[in-house]
Amino acid sequence: MLCEHCDSGDSALSRCTDCCVFMCEFCVTAHKRINATKGHKILTLDEVKRLGSKALVKPAFCRKHTGETLKLFCQTCQKTICRDCTIVDHRDHMYDFVADVAEREREVIQALLLETKAKDRFLEEGLKAVQTMESCVQAKITEVNKEVDVFFDEQVKTLEYMRGNLKHEVTTQGQIKLKQLGSQKEELSLTLAQLRSSVNFAEHALVDGDDIELLSMKEQVVKRLAHLNISQVQCKPCKTDYLKLRVEKTIWDIGKMATLDYIPTDPTKCVLSMVGGEEGVMYQTLAGQSVDFILVIRDEKAAKKVQVRALVNHEGAEATIQEDLLVQDNGDKSYIFSYCPETDGLCTLSVMVEGENAHGSPFTWKVKPKVHFLELLSFQASGEEQYLAQTEKHCWKIKVDFFGVRNYEIGVSCLKQAELEFNVNCDVEVKRSSWCYKFGKRGKGQFSRSDNPRAAAINSLRHGDVFSVFLNFDTKKLVIYNARSKQTEVFRDAFEGDKVVPIISPYVQNIQNSVSGLSLDT
Asked: Is the pLDDT of residue 424 over 70?
């Protein structure tokens, strides 16, 4: 590399970063002695190599002020400026030397660069996901087209089968008519032949026979002709040609036999509840009692029928049970299914809609042991168990055995401990929330509520009815639901005091024939 500062042809040994030229040894010496250039920064070739492209950067000049380099950075305008710019256009602006600002701005840009690079990974993953989905859509197009062909091939087969049946019926009915007409034709042909034969014989006797012959045959001829005259012959065809195709319904009358769903069901718009309970709430249940669920799809764009799968995992003390539940379509975008845990434990329910988890799935609820004595269903509402109780939700079922004239009451009683005389403590009822049935006069029952005798929503009761009672300490709500009549009693602010005791009256521990009462054995 030759010196760019003179025409000596000597090799360059250094570079002036201010003048942006490579110089020989003589020019470097002169550069350092001249007042105008002795303050310039001079780098050796080794230093230039080590710095790389940074050492070769040429100074940037101001487009507005000729010959002035851009050495300042205006913080106000966020742009590089020269010394003259600070006097004219940037007089009152905040600015600093480029060298002082550059490092700080580099850090800002570096931080943005790292954030952008991180986004690069997400974009790449998104691109791969889109490419994969493209392949899936293309495969799905082929798959669904095959399903369309199979469906309509089956319909064509069915139509061909129906056409064959109809043509067979046409042929059968036509043959019956032809057979009867054939019999009639034979009978008429025979009768006609006999008539013509008798007529020919009589005419021949009249023309060619003498009087003796005519009189001799008279009785036979008259008798034969008289018989032919009085004989009844059906000359009208016994059957008509009435065979008509009556079209009941065409393909166009049926309309669409199949439609295409191309918008998936939104899982966030699928709500699972226990039948009769509060929407979306999972309650603790009792072992031995069936738990009924209802899944409601509130996605207006969803198909009328979707594929729903419910899988329960029951972790008991002795074993873990997995069971696929039978799902019933109600035809109104709701689906019901049930599970009866035989033992206590923790149940996990996974609900899939078109292969996607429904909102909140998997769901969990606790199954408590079977209860035979009513007092075991009591719940603490204060004291050490207060926090646990107020965050729990309970459900139990009651079966009605209605054999005689009895009064029934279902609900909860709220108790508070009170101190009586002689330092004796006892539970005193402070609130009662219950539904009642009272056998009235003339065999007519009366339905009422503890808070309003004439406002009962459940006004039907039969032998074998099953009531579900839902107790929610979180919302202080009590719900009583009759599964048969689908009627519900709701009590708000149903709890206060120290203890909540279920009301099941009259309670029967072991149901026997001809015994009236309420039982937990559902």
From this structure: no
Q: How far from chain centre, in Å, is Cα 259?
A: 18
What DSSP element (H or E) covers 336?
A: strand 334-339
Confidence band for 373, pLDDT divided at 50, 70 and 90: low
What residues contact 454, with CB distance under 8 A and at least 6 apart?
Answer: 448
Give CA–CA dist 69/83, Å, rounded: 8
- CA-CA-CA-CA dihedral for 221, 223, 229, 233, to nearest 10: -110
Contact predicate 359/267, CB 8 Å: yes
- In this structure, how many other beta carbons lie within 10 angstroms of the beta carbon of residue 490? 14
**Cβ atoms 445, 456 nearer than 8 A:** no
Residue 86 tokens read as: 């600070």
Among candidates 464, 459, 446, 458, which has minimal Cα distance to 403? 464
| Strands of 517-519's sheet in order across | 487-492, 477-482, 466-472, 393-401, 517-519
Residue 14 has pLDDT above 70, yes or no: yes
- Dist CA 300 CA 288 (whole Å): 37
Neighbour tally for 188: CB within 10 Å: 14
Question: In this structure, are residues 463 and 401 in contact, taking their beta carbons and an 8 Å threshold?
Answer: yes
Q: What is the SS3 assignment for 239? A: coil
Residue 256's identity, in one-letter code, is: K
Per-residue pLDDT tens over the stretch 328-372: 999 889 999 999 999 999 999 999 998 889 999 999 999 998 876
Instruction: List the single range of 137-146, 259-268, 419-428 with lowest mean pLDDT.
Output: 419-428
Q: Is 273 left (phi over 0), alpha (psi -120 to 50) or beta?
A: beta
**Coil, strand or helix: which one is 392?**
coil
Any idea which residue has 């791969």 for tokens? 128
Tokens of 24: 């020989």
Residue 83 has pLDDT above 70, yes or no: yes
Q: Is 495 left (phi over 0), alpha (psi -120 to 50) or beta?
A: beta
